[in-house]
Each structure stands twice: as C-alpha cells, then as structure tokens.
Write a structure and sequence with these properties.
It is built from 10 helices and 4 strands. Strand 3 and strand 4 form a beta hairpin. With about 300 residues, it is of the alpha/beta class.
Amino acid sequence: MQRLFFTYILFSISTLAAANELHYRIQTDINLEERTTEVNSEFLLQRSTRNDVEKNILDVSDNLDNIEVTYFLNNNIQLNDEYIKENIRSLIHNYSSLLNWPFFSATLKPNIILFDNRKEFEAYQTEKVGEYRWHYGYYSKSNNEAVIFINDSTKDSTLTILHEVSHAINYQRIPSIPGWLNEGLAEYMSKISLIKTDDTKPVSKYNDSTLSIKKFLKRNYFNDRNVSAKQISNYYQISESLVAFLISKENQYLRRTLTSLEKLPFSLSGHYKEFDRLYPGGIDALAENWRQWANNPHEN
C-alpha cells in the first residue's frame, strides 16, 4: 500500500512537470511569435515610412504648381518659373534625403515675390511687416511670403530665393524652430541645392574660438536689435557651420533631435535641453567635436 502511494506521488509529480514544460513551450512559442510579429511590424512600418518619403519627394518634385512666383521687375533679369522651381525641387530633395523629412505639395506653397527695384522692395516690406529690416530678402510666416530683392547676379538671387523658401520648409516641419537652426539650415541647404553653376559657394566651416556654444544656442541673436551687422554675418556662418557638421558627422543625432523639436512649444531653453540631452556627452562634447571638425580643412 505504501509502495503504491509513493508510486502515485511520483507519477503526479512527473505529470505536473510534463504539463508545466508543455505550458512553458507553448508560452515561449507564443512570446516568440509575438516578438517576431512586433519586429516584422516595425520593419514594415520603417519600410512604409521610407516608401512614403520617397513618394512625397516625387509628388513634390513633379508638382510645384501651387507655388506662385510674382515678378515686379523693370530690367531684363534671367529668372523664370521653370528655373526657380527646378532649384526648389533640388532643395526639397535635399531636405528629404538628408533629414528624412516628407513633404506634401498641398501644404508647401509659399508665395515668392521678386523685386529688382530697391525702393519698391523697401516700400512693400514696410507695408507688409511694418518696417524695413532685411536688405536682400525675408520670409513672412504670417503672410506665407518669400520676398526677395533681385540683383544682377542670377546665382546670388537664386541662393536668396532658396534661403527664404527653406524657412517655409523649416516652419512647416518645426513651427517652433530655434533661430540658429532655422538660419543654419537655410544657408546650408540653399548652397548645396543651387543647380547649373560653376561658381558654387563653399559651405562654411567658420569657427569662432571665442564663442560660447552654450550661450549661442540659448539666445536668438537674429532678432536682437543690439547686434551689429558684422556680428549677424558671423552668426549666420556659425549656424551654417554647425548644421553642416551635424548633417555630415552626426546625421542620426540631428534627425532624432529634429523629430523631438517638432513636439515642443517655442522655448530656447527647452530646445537647448533637447540638444544637450540627446547628444552623447551633452553640449560640451558637441562643441568640442564641432571645433575639431571645423579646424580640419580636409574633413567634410
């Protein structure tokens, strides 16, 4: 009787162990299947996103009819809709391919207004924005207008057009974009997007050794009336140089940070914290790596 009792106990333990092992295998298979499904779903989402970006590039490149160009020209300027939109296609392609920004032609529709008479340009600007501040061109977010003064140089005039259209692109993606990033992207993207010229302006690697990057990123110098024209020119070059460094050497970091900035309200301190939080080693490491890159003439 006692022997039968122990036999029964051993049988029960074996049966329970087998049942537990079967449950573990089934659960493991379920978990594995779920993880596989998650990975496949993520892969399909990434592939779908890439396809959407590529499709959007083609959509915008093929259809820029929504962008209107208005000419107030008194002289024989070598600019026309076809040439301007060809350069804008190049600009949009570079934004999309370098930053993975999808664009929709239905929402990217700044009005481009061109003047070749300085007094008419000044009068229009004063009427629209209340004062005359910008000597070559400006983009008005509230009016959705890129207004440009056209000079004798087709190249310089086209660069200004691309610079101002870049602001429309930047605001479309990041409404609260900080000033240095807004100007840096506009300077960099316009230069690399200009087509049909043998005299392309080099991308700036300007590096002011006396500049505090922390202070620069925390302040919007471009709207500061107390900053001299020479200082503003330097700040444009620094902004372009920082953007060039981030795109060429820290592209994934820049993409992550831009995506994060899309969700933030306008706050210079908030923007600064995101750049500091997401860069390995923080702003101090970013500043050091940028200076090393800027001081090396052989590194692009």
